[in-house]
């Protein structure tokens, strides 16, 4: 059966935090920052002994590590600067360390995979005054020729990185999952057709997706989500699911707003059933959660007005986890 994971951005989790996660019924931790692990600041990649120590500590609370993030590949790498090769080497070494530690899923971030200047960010108010992330489409300032040139340049650098990383992932039995570009504008590296190209270019079973329901719905609403779950899921390429609901989409309303799981446009119960039907048995992560009364959160400049990682006593996450566990319990009764 599917499990539940939550995202954190630090390895310095207190006993109280880990107890609360265990009490809520969380199964696994996803580490969302490539610099979260000890050793990265000192040598550029995680220290294996410290990672194994962290893994043992989490297991003492009934938790496990599901997904980690490799050190970021920044503008230096994407533009072919000399320092960029050192960044890639750090990612290669990090992947080997995570493989040695038995971590099942890694993600590699690529700077420049989104076009933030094409939307305006705003604060949406939902049920009872809940604060949610909203983004509204602006006029596309890039012409078609520029879009194609930018995409192909970035795609070339992406392929260079994956050609180094994929053989190592295969050697260590690690899956490399890619999150879609959020926001998925035309021409973004991992939006639209670019997302499909990943498994065309790299047909390895260790290459696939951190499939974000909300981000893909931003591009094509529920019909696209159902189609992609069937397409990628039957190939066994969905490694982790970000279980996020939204209102609106870029093609229809020219804007979208993230929403609580029961308060968006998507039928999350049906989505769960589609995942089950294609054989997905990995983790569901509540991902971006609207800000409810009393929640303490750290605002991220790229994704304001939402909680992008779990925090102690965050009622929005507690609600989302409970909602997901109820759906999973109902799925057992329904599916048998």
TrEMBL record:
<dbReference type="InterPro" id="IPR036237">
    <property type="entry name" value="Xyl_isomerase-like_sf"/>
</dbReference>
<comment type="similarity">
    <text>Belongs to the mannonate dehydratase family.</text>
</comment>
<keyword id="KW-0408">Iron</keyword>
<keyword id="KW-0456">Lyase</keyword>
<dbReference type="GO" id="GO:0008198">
    <property type="term" value="F:ferrous iron binding"/>
</dbReference>
<comment type="pathway">
    <text>Carbohydrate metabolism; pentose and glucuronate interconversion.</text>
</comment>
<dbReference type="InterPro" id="IPR004628">
    <property type="entry name" value="Man_deHydtase"/>
</dbReference>
<dbReference type="GO" id="GO:0030145">
    <property type="term" value="F:manganese ion binding"/>
</dbReference>
<dbReference type="GO" id="GO:0042840">
    <property type="term" value="P:D-glucuronate catabolic process"/>
</dbReference>
<keyword id="KW-0464">Manganese</keyword>
<dbReference type="GO" id="GO:0008927">
    <property type="term" value="F:mannonate dehydratase activity"/>
</dbReference>
<comment type="function">
    <text>Catalyzes the dehydration of D-mannonate.</text>
</comment>
<protein>
    <recommendedName>
        <fullName>mannonate dehydratase</fullName>
        <ecNumber>4.2.1.8</ecNumber>
    </recommendedName>
</protein>
<dbReference type="Pfam" id="PF03786">
    <property type="entry name" value="UxuA"/>
</dbReference>
